[in-house]
Amino acid sequence: MLSKCKCKNIPKAKLAEIISGLPEKAIIDQLCEFFKVFGDSTRLKILYFLSCNEFCVADLSDLVGMQQSAVSHQLQTLRLHRLVKCRKEGTTTYYSLNDNHVQQIFGIALEHINEGFVK
Amino acid sequence: MLSKCKCKNIPKAKLAEIISGLPEKAIIDQLCEFFKVFGDSTRLKILYFLSCNEFCVADLSDLVGMQQSAVSHQLQTLRLHRLVKCRKEGTTTYYSLNDNHVQQIFGIALEHINEGFVK
DNA sequence: TGAATTAATGAACATATATTCATTAATAAG
DNA sequence: CTTATTAATGAATATATGTTCATTAATTCA
Fold this sequence. Notes:
Order of helices and strands of chain A: HHHEHHEEH
Distance between the termini of chain A: 37 Å
Largest sheet of chain A: 3 strands, antiparallel
Radius of gyration of chain A: 20 Å
Shape of chain A: elongated
Structural class of chain A: mainly alpha
Oligomer: homodimer
Number of domains of chain A: 1
Largest interface: A-B, 57 and 57 residues
Number of helices of chain A: 6
Helix content of chain A: 55-70%
CATH superfamily of chain A: Winged helix-like DNA-binding domain superfamily/Winged helix DNA-binding domain
Mean pLDDT of chain A: 91
Number of strands of chain A: 3
CATH topology of chain A: Arc Repressor Mutant, subunit A
């Protein structure tokens, strides 16, 4: 490990500890997928609106200004990642947030963004 | 707004409030970009290692098992998003975390993932 | 000055992904 | 039963993005 590198200012024991502390691939992949979900403006808008109230697909379509199909596809990925849940009433499907972490995540992200203007 | 929708179970006043509360495009785009940075396994690994210690590019290249160029490109994006900072010493560049939110974000994301197994 | 080392950069390529279009499924209403 | 409505799905396309390869820049050392 670290064959070519000249950075020897870290004890081997600590280095081994760091390497063994790397989360296993499955965890990293899940983290990755989780963050990817937030990395799309349409999904972010949907999540914002659902953080205010439950909405049906047609509502969300209007609100985010995107076709029904596009919104439905995005809701599917949000569902698959358990960020939203839905209940059906006749032919309409009402979506709502399923994860209390969404708000926290947004808060931290906004802090980071705001710091960009301060610095 | 909400022309075709039958979901009238929300007062117009509240709806207007919700719509006006939508963060402006610039903010959403920034949020989006911020989360995209975390949506890549190579970058996640880099961030993990940098959360333990500072490392030079060659180190990180070995640690994440990826070519120097790939790591350098990813470090560039991490730098552009102010998640890492660097200091130069001769020809080597040492990178370290620049954002105290990274740990928090990871924590919340891990909570979400773990809940997936409980439910 | 010239060779070696480390990192950064640019172009090309391959893959991933968001959107659109068209269709289907499911339910409600006439 | 037929039509209308709402949402979900699949295929196709266009765009975005990560990695590699090749090169360049900057610094150190002989």
